[in-house]
Amino acid sequence: MARKAFDKIMAGLEDAKAIAAGTADPADHRVHSPGRVDAGIIRKQDKLGQRGPDDGRSHHRRNPAPDCDENH
Fold it and tell me: What's this model's pTM, rounded to 2 decimal places?
């Protein structure tokens, strides 16, 4: 399954590259757009904060690594 998805993504990227290079006709391809997206509604439905499900805490460790300079 993952290989099939990868192949589809790569095919799309190759098409985009050909269109950008001028070697493919853009009229032969379709663009899919979700339209207007309300991120606030999506976050509320998924019970997410503005910073994500873990509120960004995983990147702000309380204890610095032993080799970190405390004064820096």
Answer: 0.42
